[in-house]
Amino acid sequence: MLNCKQLTELATSYTEGALDPATSRSIEAHLATCQGCRTWLEQLALTARLVRSIPQPEVTAEARDASHSAYRPAIRSYPSATSFFGSTGTPAVNPTRGAG
Ligand SMILES: [Zn+2]
């Protein structure tokens, strides 16, 4: 039988109906005996329902363009992961001495 930690790892897939029948039955067997996991799973499902019910804002083309214009200089000046970590995956900039 699943323990509580294993149940929490599978809970999202379970609530989405994405698990195989045997695993779903294991979860239901655990829920039948564990009030803590039943309460936790009810709260998880409620949170998912509430998040889905929040209306998505309409973004006009003007607002999108204004946002891109505002962020573009900051994004351009931000070091890419490659320039920060270098090709070896270690930081290319020595934090004690600065760049170069
Ligand atoms: Zn449990």
Mean pLDDT over all positions: 83
Indicate the percent of residues in helices: 55-70%
- Our count of helices gives 5
Any low-confidence stretches, pLDDT <50, length ≥5? none
Distance between the termini: 57 Å
Count the strands?
Answer: 0
Element-by-element helix/strand order: HHHHH
What is the alpha-carbon Rg in Å? 23 Å
Largest sheet, strands/sense/barrel:
none
Shape: elongated
Beta content comes to under 5%
Q: What class do helices, strands and sheet pairing give?
A: mainly alpha
Bound molecules: zinc ion
What does this structure look like?
With 100 residues, the protein is mostly helical. The protein has five helices and no strands. It has a domain at 4-53. The protein has helices spanning 4-15, 21-33, 35-53, 61-77, 81-85. Helix 2 crosses helix 3 (35-53). The longest helix has 19 residues, at 35-53. The structure holds zinc ion. Zinc ion is lined by residues 4, 7, 30, 34, 36-37.
SSE topology:
Layout: H1 4-15, H2 21-33, H3 35-53, H4 61-77, H5 81-85
Helix pairs in contact: 1-3, 2-3
Bound molecules: zinc ion.
Question: Outline of this structure?
Answer:
With about 100 residues, the chain is mainly α. The protein is built from five helices and no strands. The chain binds zinc ion (ZN).
List keywords for this structure.
66% helix; binds zinc ion; 5 helices; mainly alpha; 100 residues
